[in-house]
Design brief:
By secondary structure, the protein is of the alpha/beta class. It has ten helices and nine strands. It binds ligand BV8.
Length: 241
């Protein structure tokens, strides 16, 4: 894979780097994306499963969907692109800002990860907030043992606020980085989708890694139209040659 010379020379300066990842980052680990062809939203109605109202209308279907995703996230293996990001943080300051809820950056061993849309790893009661779990449920709907309410995953649904700590950390890192890698996201969902433009305005080099690039014209300095599992190791290799 040929990398732009200016990207290689910037990498060799060991710049402060933000890696912003979406569902495409986990595609090569076997987790379906949302909007690519054959993605999750092809088969499921987003508003029936990933919104508070949808959850209350379709509680059992939503709980089953999340339990299945939790189990999958625990069994798949982070691919070479995840390992490359762990190597990268040994070479330069790396902050990972992910829209993903599968926890694969943590499992791969990355140390600075901000989960903008929460996590599948934990759950709580929709009614009283009591911490709970959903991954190993066998009987649905799953009720809270404290108040009898319904158990929901600790993800951020549409119409819900993002976790303040993760969001402010993501904006702070984006505003002060020199390299912004925008990996595997269709850039549809806000406020996460505003990050690459913010990075560009703050003077960072913006690089999109996506077989089907989608950033509006003028946001990315460079586009690598390759899968994350190939492009990210290529960046690490460029440091070594
Ligand atoms: C908010 C967690 C403030 C759950 C997700 C009306 C009312 C309320 C809000 C809004 C509204 N209108 C608009 C909004 C804002 C809304 C929004 O942006 N909507 C969009 C649809 C327009 N945002 C929100 O609601 C956010 N909260 O704004 O709060 C507020 C509050 C109240 C009222 C107003 C404002 C909350 C958003 C979080 C939603 N939660 N996930 C779950 O996972 O179940 S979003 C969901 O989509 C995913 O988590 C993911 O984060 C997100 C984006 O998807 P992508 O990651 O980009 O994945 P996608 O499939 O789309 O694309 C994959 C890409 O990978 C493709 O480009 C493909 O080419 C590429 N690819 C494929 N293979 C590879 C690859 N790339 C590299 N390598 C490969 N191998």
């Amino acid at each position: 894979m040929t990398l732009p010379p200016r990207l290689i020379s910037l990498l060799r300066e060991r710049p402060r780097t933000v890696v912003h990842t979406g569902a495409g980052m986990s595609a090569e680990s076997g987790i379906a994306t949302f909007r690519s062809s054959g993605g999750m939203w092809d088969r499921l109605d987003l508003m029936d499963l990933a919104t508070p109202d949808g959850f209350l209308r379709h509680t059992e279907a939503s709980q089953r969907w999340y339990a299945q995703r939790m189990q999958q996230a625990q069994t798949v293996t982070p691919h070479a692109g995840y390992d490359a990001l762990v190597h990268l943080e040994h070479e330069m300051p790396v902050t990972i800002v992910t829209q993903n809820v599968d926890g694969l950056h943590h499992r791969a061993g990355s140390s600075t990860v901000h989960e903008l849309h929460g996590t599948l790893r934990t759950a709580h009661c929709f009614a009283c907030g009591h911490p709970s779990h959903l991954a190993d449920a066998t009987d649905f709907p799953v009720h809270c043992t404290t108040c009898g309410g319904f158990i929901r995953p600790d993800v951020v649904w549409f119409g819900e606020m993002l976790p303040e700590a993760a969001l402010s950390a993501a904006f702070a890192a984006t505003e002060t980085c020199a390299l912004f890698l925008h990996v595997g996201t269709s850039s549809n969902v806000y406020p996460a989708a505003s990050l690459p433009g913010l990075a560009r305005d703050a003077g960072a080099m913006v690089v999109e890694i996506n077989p089907e690039p989608g950033l509006p014209h003028g946001v990315a300095h460079y586009t690598l139209p390759h899968p994350a599992g190939q492009a990210l190791p290529a960046l690490v290799n460029a440091l070594r040659t």
